[in-house]
Amino acid sequence: MLSYSTIVLVELNRYYRSPQTFCCSTQQPNNSNNNVNNHILSHPNPPPLITMPTGELRHSSPPITANNNSSSATAAAFEDNAWVWAQIKAEARRDAESEPALASYLYSTILSHSSLERSLSFHLGNKLCSSTLLSTLLYDLFLNAFTSDPSLRSAAIADLRAARERDPACISFSHCLLNYKGFLACQAQRVAHRLWQQSRQPLALALHSRIADVFAVDIHPAARIGKGVLFDHATGVVVGETAVIGNNVSILHHVTLGGTGKVGGDRHPKIEDGVLIGAGATILGNVKIGEGAKIGAGSVVLIDVPPRTTAVGNPARLVGGKEKPSKHEDVPGESMDHTSFISEWSDYII
């Protein structure tokens, strides 16, 4: 009797092998139609080629409270979703042929599914299941959420793009989908947040517990997270109940967005759009980190940080001084520039 992996290899060869060469690049696509063509794997029944809209690498993101329901925005989101999913499947076919040991895994996780929502639901269900919390139950739970709430789908796409664009270690969209625990934890937390809002707190907390156990990422299900968010490495990230994270934010490992003690109510940080928080930073209390601000690695922040400024140290101080802090023009959450403040902060030389 043939093994399952052998059957999968036969099916992959049957449906996806082609005498044509692969043309799926590991580089981020740009706006050129020719380059878009180079990112779709050639096979006997290729998906339709989709031309990405201008500026596809950096979508302008509305505030997380915005309600953008225009037909043009919906069409653009659908086109973006379709392009990214076609790219993910192309990458999976390439990898299945080049590395047969992964063929069964890639087929069951990506290639056998008709949409990103189904693939992501299957993958999360298998990652987060336990002996008493079954993968089939979790699959249905995730799929219902992703198919019922378009904002969850668009956020997942934006997060995939964030990882692919900002992290040089991210070699492909499929790499992020399969292996980036920060991405996976964030998608699962969004579903837990949806359950929390539906007054299904016990299930939301059970899911929260599994996310913390499996990914070592502890984000309370009541916390609100925007889109285009990158949890880079993600190990040891803690985000409290009343925290808010805006759009296009990048957060490194061992970051804490915590409270200040036993006081209840609105007690956690509010992170506005485009913020970069370096590794090991701790932000405590109901403080605001302004749009485009930068928090240096290892900093302890206890007060508000103005927009487009840099806070560094323990306790954190503003680069340039409190009265006239230095301002930067770039968006650190997207540029991932961690150290440009060094010359202004210290003349210490090793």
TrEMBL record:
Residues 84-188 form the Serine acetyltransferase N-terminal domain. The keyword Transport does not apply. Residues 315-337 are annotated as: Disordered. One of its GO terms (molecular function) is serine O-acetyltransferase activity. GO terms for biological process: cysteine biosynthetic process from serine. This is serine O-acetyltransferase. The keyword Acyltransferase applies. The lineage of its organism: Eukaryota, Viridiplantae, Streptophyta, Embryophyta, Tracheophyta.
